[in-house]
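Each lists chain and fold; for instance:
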Amino acid sequence: MAATAAAAAAVSAAPPAAAADAGATPLPAAADPTVRTVHAESATGKQFVHGTCAAGRPVLYMRPGAQNSKDTRGNLLQLVSSLERGVAAMRPGVEKLTLLIDFTGYSLRVASSFATQRTTLAILQHHYPERLGLAVLWGAPRLFHLAYKALRPFVDPVTAAKVVFLYPGGPADVARMAELFGAGGELLVEYGGGSLWVYSNRAYFVVEGGGGGASPTHAVHAVKATRGVGGWEKGPGVVSKHEVMSAGIVGRA
């Protein structure tokens, strides 16, 4: 119990999870403008693949509090690139991802646009329906949690069983994190793990790879299938097949 309490205190005292490595050497500008868009969207570390959970699934960290753009096209390109990177990082026999959604710093001021949220849902539902192994919502606003509880009876039971709400500072929740992600190991230190890895574009796209390259195939189909969803794709923000394929080539210069 004392060890768990100490771990909880360490998580509470950890630096804000949404902070990227501000002192890192900038990533060289890519020749392809779409790749530059993905790099720009990624600069704050709002989404990245790093390590695996206790079940061996790649972990896709999502940090909505680090949102740095209202550009629907850019956000969707980064989302699909991140999902494909997670798929590419799967070891033989692994077919699902674990999402760790950290709400540190989240507010309506940095919330994604409704168009982005709606098309994100369409992409996830139609093109990655069987890829979710677990979704941990870390530090979600209490009203968000209450709203989910009210809606849970209407959510598919299999999906609902994969959603877990946990909060920093609570010994029981820290112990649950250790159970889900393994004690120490690859989980980032701000969540009670042992990894001191700090996100930067250079570390993610060039040096360490963050989870390996990604095939653009699913990304192409995902965005093509969202044509007409909400109508935004028909306007100036249209995402072309070429753009998604380029964004899928992680670290392309």
User: Anything to note?
Assistant: The longest strand covers residues 132-138.
